[in-house]
Amino acid sequence: MLQLSDCNQTCTNIINGYTCSCKDGYRNVTMDSHRCEDIDECALNSSLCVKNAHCVNTPGHYDCSCNAGFRGNGFIDCQDEDECSVKNNPCLSVNNSFCNNSIGSYSCICTSGYNGTTCEDINECISGQNNCPVNANCTNTIGSYTCVCKLGYEGNGWNCKDIDECMTGNHCNSNGSECMNTDGSYYCTCALGFTGNGTYCADINECTANPYLCQDTEECMNGFGSYKCECLPGYIRNGTICTDVDECKKNQPCDANTMVCSNTIGSYTCLCKAGYQFDSTARICTDTDECVVSSLNNCSRTTGLCQNFDGSFTCQCKAGYTGDGVTCTDIDECNPPANATQPCKGPVGVRCNNTIGHYTCSCPFGYYLDSDGTTCKDVDECIRGLHNCTQNCTNIEGGFTCSCFARFSSVNGTCKQNQTCVTDVCNGTGDCYIDETTLPGCSCNSGYTLNGTSKTQCINIDECSLPMADGQTPCDSIYGTCTDTIGSFKCGCVAGYAAVSDSRTCQDVDECQSGIYNCTQYSTCHNLDGNYTCICNSGYVQSGETCIDVDECEKAGSALCGHGAYCANTLGSYACRCLVGYVGNGTVCLDVDECLLPSNNCSANSTCTNTPGSYQCQCDAGFQKTGEMCTDVDECLKFGSAACGQGAYCVNTVGSYNCPCLAGYIGNGTVCLDVDECLLPSNNCSANSTCKNTPGSFQCQCDAGFQKTGEKCVDVNECQTSGSAACGPGAYCVNTVGSYNCPCLAGYIGNGTVCLDVDECLLPSNNCSANSTCKNTPGSFQCQCDAGFQKTGEKCVDVNECQTSGSAACGPGAYCVNTVGSYNCPCLAGYIGNGTLCLDVDECLLPATTAVPIQPAKTHQAPSNASVMLVSKKLERNA
């Protein structure tokens, strides 16, 4: 088959062949000009068209079209097209919008209160695009919004002020609760001294809650909602402290007759006075009978008498003694004062014999002592036979006289007959006489008497055994001794007595006065009738043969001395001396109030309190003893957390401490209640946060979708923080105030949580041009130009492979011929093959008329084994 020409545009026949030329708007792409390609004037010159127009290449030429939004001739002038003025305003389909023309385009602008591509209503309340105050609620309306005052506020919505509920009624009706107005609300809180939730309040017993509220001298008294510190019994309020009451000075609570009041710290005691003792049963002081207990009195044990009185006693001397009863000396009754009568009565010669505590009367010879013991009466010797008359006896005062009978005469006191006896018949025991009968008789000598009826036998008279007429013996009948002698008798005295001048009367010997006694130290000689005794001096007691000191203080104790005195033993006695802190004479000792004297050493911050016999320096409340000083007590350190109630902290002060409430608490320090700052306008929680009350404070917790940045809660851009994880596949994240949305991406459809890919290739809406194939992609699609086409703008235009690849497009001996969507490689003249492989034709071997079958050129194929037919040069030329 003969090919006549392969020109794709203009073929011009010439002798022995032909020539190919390109039309206007095309250019050669092969050496032999057999292939013409369209010239893309738009690519070669960007200024071919006017402003606001674009160049569009066409086969062999080009075109200038006004851009979208413009109208006119793209070669001459393109004017802006006002899309908003046309009857079919493109924005008419979008509610709540108006059309806004712009150069070459237009936009649909949403009216106020709307936004988005479809001008949806803006929820200004959610987006924050509202001007409602914080105390008002925002209510969205179509295209706008309104502000309404929140509960607890009043106003027009734009200006809302707090309603003071506490002023409008009794909202808190529990005893002990108080209404507290807050910004926009109120709350009920328990008043100081109460605890509870505000709705129900119970009294706090501060006294049990804190045992250290009051001082040691005070008693805590709980009251309704409060407490008070009252002074303990025995104390009185003095400013802020309680000081001791001196009950003894105030009202004399003790029996003044029997007791002494002694003040003590916070009380007093009643002490029995000297001479009284405490009766524990009757609770009174009763008289001490000092006379019953010898150790309680100092009266002389031998010569004194004790007489008890109420609260005391006196000492008196026994009869016959004189003194104060403690020391008694014998009264010498025999030496009375000059104007006093003698105790012994009788004739001259009556003798008074003094004895210890008494006296005796001794009568002179011829007298006897009457039964009264003090009167001497005459002894009638004649009647008692106490005479020595031989004949007649005549009694006289104090004696007797003898007289002789008639014819008798007294010869040497003996009556003798005037006639003398021839023989002495009396044997010397008497005088012989001749009686009237002329018989001799004997007138017995003194001390003799006639023997019976004999007148001449004189026998010895035993004067000691013969009683006198008054019944007494011739010698001292009490203290005397009688010794008979021949013709007489002899009077003596018993030991301790001595005869007086008449030798018949015995008088006591005063051994004490005469110094013939033997008494030890600390004893005194006391004369007795016929003897003496050694009596221990007052204050001493017999111990064997000696006298030892009596320790009256040890035996009687404090009973010897009065209140405030102590007993000091001395030799033979004792002394009462005032104790330290008392002043007086020992019998009466008064307490010294050292607090009134500058000598008390009470330091600063202390109070001097007088005590019996001393004083005390009591540190003032809030101070403690450190050596001799009163130093401040750090109650905060001493009591620790117990010093103050919950919610308070301890602040030490000089002499005390305070319990201020911690920040976030309110109260009196004893009871501090947590302040719910969330109910107060003072909490600084910003917008988009919630206030949470905590003990003593509060927390501003950002609402969901917000995070803390400084003091504010700002919106969390979840789209940034979570990235692609915020939304599911096929959705994109759109941050909102406090949250986010997940709308489906373009090319996806769903609810945002699940978005499914839209296969746009199945929809008529895909804009793939001719010579392209639609390929679905996740969320979109691609218009892929078919093989042999390339993207130019939105279109797929043929690729001139002969231009892009040049000589490399085809193998040796072939030339490139572009086709729509591909290209061919026909063998050059003189060659034969499939285009991929072209072999040189040896025309010389072919007959002139031989026709050579030609295989069509293949594109993008490997060389084939097509048969080669030889054709003549002529045939080739003619073709």
From TrEMBL:
Disulfide bonds join C91-C108, C110-C119, C344-C361. Residues 38-79, 80-120, 121-161, 162-202, 203-243, 244-286, 287-329, 330-377, 460-507, 508-548, 549-590, 591-631, 632-673, 674-714, 715-756, 757-797, 798-839 form the EGF-like domain. SMART domains: EGF, EGF_CA. Signal peptide: none annotated. It comes from the Eukaryota. Keywords: Calcium, Disulfide bond, EGF-like domain, Glycoprotein, Repeat, Signal. GO terms for molecular function: calcium ion binding. SUPFAM superfamilies: EGF/Laminin, Growth factor receptor domain. This is Fibrillin-1-like. It comes from Petromyzon marinus.
